[in-house]
Specification:
Helix 2 packs across helix 7, helix 3 runs antiparallel to helix 4 and helix 3 packs antiparallel against helix 11. This protein starts with a helix and ends with a helix. It has 2 domains: 151 residues, no CATH class; 228 residues, no CATH class. By secondary structure, the protein is an alpha+beta fold. It is built from 18 helices and 14 strands. The chain binds zinc ion (ZN). The site of zinc ion has 7 residues, from loops.
């Protein structure tokens, strides 16, 4: 038997739950060599522990923990991309597989393996009256400020997984890291309350469009060729206009600064009950182009007690005949909506799209796929297809059969509509035949 097959089983969700709130400690304990620098200053960019210092410009590029690193353990490198949680980051820097990573984190946060749980149950049944035998050689007890040493049992099954003694911080250092972690958690709770306040305020300040569309937004939608079927597009108060929305950025020290104020399209990202979970902003110029800022399209933060999973910009409102379209971007979703009049929701990003939850009564979902050089759009639709078909929902994939333009990273259905007009979209009759044909 190989070492890997002897590795004990852990309940991943239990470990994840226990690890939430402690990821800086976990990194300090398991990967101090790799993450030491980032742990000391979690708000700044650092040399990426995964790909090293090989960046062209020599500055600005690099690795940064997510703002909620204490809870998620996630981070992002400008070169390597995002790592949604601490397990993924540890796998990457340590070269461990998921089970090994899980075992090490479980050890640290004090989650027992399934075998240990079973044995504990057995022994408590067989020796209910006897006090637990004292074993002086036992090292599984918690020591030095909650730091659980890797037990000899795990060392047996995974002898060379990692050498803790070599890079582990001192107990004093560990105490400092715990304090820093508490500070970050406090800031995070504050940031979440602020995010909620901002979402409510910006939506309140924004103008509903039922009495006409203000100039900059009208021009923008015109440029995107999605102005027809306005009554369908405006169904359900999902799009509003903000006259002068501040654009924030961070300076090199991580301090938030206002870059300027711009007209903006505000889109509500709602759950299936219609609650606004967060907002998506598109910063514009008065002439309806995208504003000249680093990131003219931005989603606002999601408050801690909410999730965007299963949420969307519900363009066209709720379907009445069991057929709905779905796409990543707002403009991409608005394109088939304009052409066919079928409600088509925008999930904003590929990761939210994968988890798209159609409303009740939907039997057919049409996926308007982005074509990316990275294949991200295609992979997201494949994942969505699997998810939907498991629920017995039919999925119709609409890939773009055109080349990605030279110099571009991707092409989407709105690019097709803008460039080729309605003729570039699948013919209405053909689409209906596919929908009805099954
Ligand atoms: Zn990197």
């Amino acid at each position: 038997m190989s070492a890997a097959t002897k590795l004990p089983y852990y309940d991943a969700s239990k470990v994840r739950e226990k690890a939430s709130g402690r990821w800086l400690e976990i990194f300090a304990y398991l990967a101090y060599e790799e993450f030491g620098e980032a742990i000391q200053k979690p708000k700044k960019h650092h040399t990426c522990p995964i790909h090293g210092t090989r960046n062209k410009s020599g500055k600005g590029d690099g690795f940064k923990f997510f703002k909620d690193v204490v809870d998620s353990g996630g981070g992002v490198c400008n070169t390597c991309g995002p790592f949604p949680d601490g397990f993924r980051l540890l796998q990457e820097v340590k070269g461990w597989d998921f089970r090994t990573t899980l075992a090490h984190v479980a050890e640290f946060v004090g989650v027992k393996s399934e075998q240990e749980e079973r044995e504990a149950k057995k022994s408590s049944r067989s020796s209910t009256s006897k006090p637990a035998p004292t074993q002086p050689q036992s090292t599984t007890a918690s020591q030095s400020g909650g730091v659980v040493p890797i037990s000899p049992q795990v060392n047996q099954v995974e002898p060379s997984a990692h050498d803790v003694s070599k890079f582990a911080p001192t107990p004093e250092r560990m105490e400092e890291i715990k304090k820093l972690q508490e500070q970050i958690a406090k800031r995070q709770a504050q940031a979440s309350a602020e995010a909620q306040e901002q979402i409510d305020r910006i939506w309140r300040e924004s103008i509903p469009l039922n009495n006409g569309i203000p100039g900059p937004l009208y021009k923008y939608l015109q440029k995107r060729a999605v102005l027809l079927r306005l009554e369908v597009l405006l169904e359900g108060d999902n799009i509003r206009f903000h006259r002068e929305l501040p654009y924030y950025d961070e300076d090199d020290d991580g301090k938030v600064i206002v870059v300027g104020k711009f007209p903006a399209m505000i889109a509500a990202i709602r759950d299936l009950k219609g609650n606004i979970i967060t907002l998506h902003r598109t910063y514009l110029t008065p002439r309806g182009a995208k504003a000249n800022v680093e990131c003219p399209r931005k989603m606002m933060a999601v408050p801690d007690d909410k999730t965007v999973t299963g949420c969307a910009i519900q363009l066209g409102g709720f379907p009445t005949d069991g057929v709905i379209g779905v796409a990543e971007g707002y403009e991409t979703a608005a394109s088939p909506l304009r052409v066919y009049g079928i409600p088509t929701w925008s999930c904003v990003s590929a990761s939210i799209l994968e988890q798209f939850e159609p409303p009740k009564g939907v039997h057919t979902v049409i996926g308007w796929e982005d074509k990316d050089r990275s294949l991200r759009g295609e992979l997201a639709m494949q994942a969505l297809k699997v998810n939907l078909e498991e629920k017995g929902i039919r999925f119709i994939r609409m890939p773009i059969r055109r080349k990605i333009p030279t110099g571009a990273k991707s092409i989407d259905w709105n690019d097709v509509l803008v460039k080729e007009g309605i003729i570039g979209m699948p013919a209405y009759n053909q689409l209906m035949k596919v929908i009805q044909g099954g």
